[in-house]
Amino acid sequence: MDKIQELIDLLNQQNKKEEKTFHPFQLVLTVLVSIAAAAGAVYAIYRYFTPNYLEDYDDEDFKDDFDDYFEDEDMKEEKEKKSVSQRVNDVREAAAAKVEEVKGVVSDKAEAVKDVFTDTVEKVKSSVSPEK
Questions:
Q1: Which of 2, 37, 50, 74 sits at 20 to 30 Å (Cα–Cα) from 88?
Q2: In angstroms, rounded to a whole number, what is the distance separating the alpha carbons of residues 94 and 43?
Q3: pLDDT tens over the chain, length 132 residues
Q4: What is the C-alpha separation between 53 and 78, in angstroms, rounded?
Q5: pTM to 2 decimal places
Q6: What is the DSSP letter of 125?
Q7: Cα–Cα–Cα angle for 76, 79, 83, nearest 5°?
Q8: Which of 94, 116, 88 is nearest to 102 (CA)?
């Protein structure tokens, strides 16, 4: 009987050792699963209580867009019908306006350069000529 009791005690000791072993992987996995479950529940509740705004839109609101598309194409065709000579005249007018603008800028710059050059020549003349 003593031997049986010893065997039972040994088995109890082994069971206690097995119960005391700590598995950090098991703890981490348990925490992650519980967080995922809580997040899933919160998301499900959010989706349930959030109104569906797409139900507020009617299909009739978008029917006019189809007609607008064809109206835009008609306007494009009208622009294309504009004569080539009219387009050439428009380009000539725009080019002439740009040329006049550039002429004004160039003449202003030329005047500024002329003034600087004249001042420089005067300074050189005064420094070269002997003072009396």
A1: 74
A2: 62
A3: 788 888 888 888 877 666 556 678 888 999 999 999 999 999 999 988 887 776 666 655 555 555 555 566 666 666 666 677 788 888 889 999 988 888 888 888 888 888 888 888 888 888 776 655
A4: 40
A5: 0.30
A6: H
A7: 150
A8: 94
Look up residue 58 and give its two tokens: 């009617």
Residues, the chain: 132
Read off the tokens for 54.
């797409």
85: which 2 tokens? 């000579």
Distance CA 48, CA 43 (A): 9
For residues 13-37, b (16+ Cβ closer than 10 Å) or e, as one string? Answer: eeeeeeeeeeeeeeeeeeeeeeeee
Residue 73: CB atoms within 10 A of its CB come to 10
Residue of 82, 105, 83, 86 whose CA lies nearest to 94: 86
Residue corresponding to tokens 């008609």: 74
